[in-house]
Every structure is written in C-alpha cells, then in structure tokens.
Amino acid sequence: MLTSLYGDDATGRSFIWCKFKSILGQITALITFYMICFSAVDQFFSTNHRFNLRQMCTLKSGRYFAFILMCCAIIHGIVMGSSYDIQPTMGCVLSNHVWVQYSTFFYYPILVGFLPVAIASLFSILAYHNVRHIVRRQLPIVRRKLDKQITAMVLTRVIAFVCLTLPYNAYRIYAINFPISPSMPMAYAIGRVIQTIFSSISIINYIINFYIFIIFSSRFRRQARLVLVKKCWQRWKYWCCSINNRIEPDNNIERRNSQMESEENI
Predict the structure, then answer these.
(1) What is the largest CA-CA distance in the chain?
(2) Which CATH superfamily is domain 2-216 in?
(3) Sorting pLDDT into bands at 50, 70 and 90, what band is 190?
(4) Hey, how many other C-beta atoms are within 10 angstroms of the C-beta on 13?
(5) Which among 73, 89, 161, 180 would be 20 to 30 A from 227, CA to CA?
(6) Hey, CA dihedral for 204, 209, 213, 219, is it positive or negative?
C-alpha cells in the first residue's frame, strides 16, 4: 500500500518506520530460521534408538528453548535494527560501519545463513537415518508410520528452507556493501526488481508450512477438511441461510456435536 501511494515503502521518509521495519525483520527472521532448526533437532532426538536421548526432548524443554530464542532474537533485533538510519542519497540503510561489517561477515553469511542451514540439514539427515532403522525397534506400526511421516515433513521443510534462504542472504550481503543511490534511476530500478524477486522467494519460508503438511500428512489433511468443510462451511450455512430459524430437538444437536468430536479424534 505504501509503495503504491508513495512509490516506495516509506522507510526513506519516516525515521521511526525505518527502524521499526528493520527491527521486526531481524526478529522474525531469527525466530523462523531457528525454529526450523529446533524442529529438526527435536525429530532427531525423538527418533533416536537411545532412550536417554529420546527423554532429552520434552515439551517443557521445547518451550524453554523457544522462550530463550525469542528473547535473544528480540534483543538482537532491537540492537541491530536501531543502527539503521535514513541517509539523503541511500534511504534507510545501515549507517554504522561496525554493523555493516557485522552484517557482511557474520549476520547474513553465518547467523541466518550457514549456521541454521548446517544445523537443520545435519539433524534432518540424522533423523531420516534414524527412521530408516526404526524397524529394529519394538514400536507399534502406527508409531512407526507417524515417525516416518513427521521426519519426511521436517526433511522437506529443511530443503525448502535452504533453497529459499540462500539467494536472499547473498543479495543482502551485496546490497549492504554496494548500496545504489536513487539518483541513478536505471540501476536503482533494477536493484529494486532484484530485491523484490529475492524477497518474494524468501517470504515463502513463512507460508510454506501449511502446504508441506497438506502434502505429507494424511492426518493433517483430514483435520483441515474437517475444519474447512464440516465446521466452517456448516457455520457459514447456519448464519447465512435460514437454518438458524429451524427448531431442532436437543438430542439431535448433542448427537451432531458428539459425531463431530469423534471425527476430530480420528
């Protein structure tokens, strides 16, 4: 909306918006990338044949690590995002030379580049290796199928994460070190087009989970069909049609509710 009104996203016009957008981008990127790493690590431990390793990853420890990650991401985002400033010729860019070097040599290539990619890839491959040898363990067939299904989802998510993250990180390293001034219209327009393409590819990281779960999880497909078709559609019919004026015995309503609850538990 801001781009359509003013020709840009207003980061070069508003000092507060420049810093806030940078801070929010740093926080969401770190949380998203390392949550993917946590899911791969959790799947590795939960499918490991050693009982003591399986007991290490619990719901309580997962919440604990997620809370620490969010706190670190918020602190990092505020500190780094505050170093962005508006310059007359460049717009909203990193103005501190120290933070430029930090972004060039550590943040983009390592912190949101090599490190999460290496962690997620390593543990997803190890989890896949565990699942391939899961037949040796005395587990119910349903549990084995569930482990294989979740591992396939995690591995696919990691592959998508690697493919969608690396191009944008490479572009950001170049853009920080070689910013293009708006006084050069052609070069600036080409840079904006390239930035839009890589940004759009990177944004897929935040929306692809639903489609991966739909493809690889039959249980998730049943739940999605139940919620979208049998709940949302029925409620829409109830509110938009004349069904709400129809008198129905209480036992029929209770029977329908119990039927929907039993379908949810399948």
Answers:
(1) 73
(2) Rhodopsin 7-helix transmembrane proteins (1.20.1070.10)
(3) confident
(4) 14
(5) 161
(6) negative
